[in-house]
Amino acid sequence: MTKYSSEFKVKLVNEYFDRQISILGLSKKYGMPSKSPIYRWVHEAEANGLNYLITKKSHKEYSQDFKLSVIEYHKLHEISRLDTVIYFKISPSQVNSWIYRYNHYGVIGLRRRPRPLMAKKKKKQTRLNPTFIIETFMK
Predict the structure, then answer these.
(1) Which residues form the Insertion element IS150 protein InsJ-like helix-turn-helix domain (predicted)?
(2) Other beta carbons within 10 Å of 9
(3) What is the sign of the dihedral through the CA atoms of 28, 29, 33 and 39?
(4) What is the DSSP letter of 78?
């Protein structure tokens, strides 16, 4: 689940593009704790268009080779994580996670991890009160 809706992102970016208000002004106007998300949305929209801000609903799996190529591109070109995200059109949290895991665990940290299975809830067994049973059969 995303923190901000696609409509909200597009609204703020359009306000910025219309030169109605600065990025800092937008963050204050809408009570956002940081201007960073707006900065990212503006740069993503400049590079890829407003449609890029529409939230994707599917879960996409990336191979270990792809993750490694993203990290190598980021390091080789000495660009920011934001520019890396925009170039590959992927989520900033994914890139941050991959870089963290690569720095702490090496290439092995980029392997696909199985998704945890949801534990099945056991049905709660109702225990009958012994006095209820006796009273029921005594009638």
Answers:
(1) 66-115
(2) 23
(3) negative
(4) T
Q: What angle do CA 126, 116, 66 make, to 5 degrees?
A: 165
Cα–Cα distance measured from residue 100 to residue 26, given in angstroms and rounded to the nearest whole number: 30
The candidate with the shortest Cα–Cα distance to 37, out of 6, 74, 1, is: 6
Contacts of 43 (CB under 8 A, 6+ apart): 82, 86
CA distances from 124 to 65, 117, 120 (A): 46, 21, 12
* pLDDT reported for residue 114: 66
User: Is 52 within 8 Å of 89 (Cβ atoms)?
Assistant: yes
- Can you give the pTM of this predicted structure? 0.56
**Helix (H) or strand (E) run with residue 111 in it:** none
pLDDT range class, residue 130, cuts 50, 70, 90 = low
Give the amino acid at 113: R
- Residues with Cβ within 8 Å of residue 111, at least 6 apart in sequence: 64
Cβ within 8 Å of residue 5, ≥6 positions away: 55
- By the 10 Å C-beta count (0-12 exposed, 13-18 middle, 19+ buried), 62 is classed as middle
Question: Which tokens is 38 given?
Answer: 């707006």
Position 84 pLDDT exceeds 80? yes
